[in-house]
Amino acid sequence: MKTRITELLGIEHPIIQGGMHYVGFAELAAAVSNAGGLGVITGLTQRTPQLLANEIAKCRDMTDKPFGVNLTFLPTVSSPDYPGYVKAIVEGGVKVVETAGRNPVQVMPFLKDAGIKVIHKCTSVRHSLKAQEIGCDAVSVDGFECGGHPGEDDIPNMILLPRAADELDIPFVASGGMADARSLVASLAMGAEGMNMGTRFIATKEAPVHERVKQAIVAASELDTRLIMRSLRNTERVLNNAAVERLLLKEKELGAKLRFEDIMEEVAGVYPRVMTDGDMDAGAWSCGMVAGLIHDIPTCKELINRIMNEADALIRKRLLGLAAA
Ligand SMILES: Cc1cc2nc3c(=O)[nH]c(=O)nc-3n(C[C@H](O)[C@H](O)[C@H](O)COP(=O)(O)O)c2cc1C
């Protein structure tokens, strides 16, 4: 399938794997890219720019296809060494960067000078327009359904995607709640040029996370995620567990008085314990409502081939069959 996104990124299928903390290592990024999508290494999971440079080199050894790096701009006081990470990306010859969080304007000149395509992931039409204005090549429009940080507007993709299509000139992919051929075809119908998946890619054979994480996603239904940190305006959609219930109780009791320090135990340093050690109740970890649509653990190639084959059948049989003669 050719779309503006496959052309822009030089990939075979319009499917991107979003950056995911402690999931987006070289193994997963290379598997997605080898399957014809765009795999993405999560920059900040690598604690230093040098470690990111090593991870990029490792990924390059595992695939000769294009892959990207995610650079998330955190709302933290002590900023990571972003110039160092950008240097590792540029010197590593990476051709695509997925930015997320704050506006990436500070790094744009360095990325553009190196000929890197920038896809900014954002949760609103106004932020998408801003990304277009500062020179991003594409946006990933992340609806309220998404795993991770859905922002504070709470607009689901059935509204957000057509709104983005009405306003944007640059291409965009649909993100949040995407799992299968139905997601892809619906997104294309709403004006997107492809889709970005997070949670779905965790439940794949190559995702380098503990088996219990994959099983938890397969076992979860669409009713099993919770929104945390709303009062801190840092909303995150996570899979419910004992730590999340404890956190929500604190949020309820403290109301507007809640400070980040009150929930440190449930959110700080959680990812390696969950993703690597499989300690499922260690704290709050991102997961999308799309867990309700995930019932198996295929390889990335099986998943992407299935999506593309079923999308083709959906368009040719069901949709063409419905069109008036
Ligand atoms: C476990 C997990 C960790 C994530 N970490 C990041 C991250 O570090 N940076 C980022 O930009 N997005 C992150 N995301 C968001 C994904 O890249 C993607 O936008 C989101 O998962 C899409 O929604 P979906 O899960 O419904 O597919 C994370 C998502 C998950 C599920």
Descriptive overview:
- This protein is of the alpha/beta class.
- 41% of the residues lie in helices and 14% in strands.
- The chain folds into two domains: 4-208, Aldolase class I (TIM Barrel); 211-289, no CATH class.
- The strands form two sheets. An eight-stranded parallel beta sheet has the order 1-8-7-6-5-4-3-2. The chain has a two-stranded antiparallel sheet with strand order 9-10.
- Helix 3 links the parallel strand 2 (39-42) and strand 3 (67-73).
- It is globular.
- Bound molecules: flavin mononucleotide.
- Flavin mononucleotide (FMN) binds at residues 18-21, 23, 42, 70, 72, 100, 121, 142, 145-148, 175-178, 196-200, 285-288, 290.
- Flavin mononucleotide binds at residues 18-21, 23, 42, 70, 72, 100, 121, 142, 145-148, 175-178, 196-200, 285-288, 290.
Top keywords for this entry?
325 residues; alpha/beta; TIM Barrel; 8-stranded parallel beta sheet; two-stranded antiparallel sheet; 14 helices; 10 strands; binds flavin mononucleotide
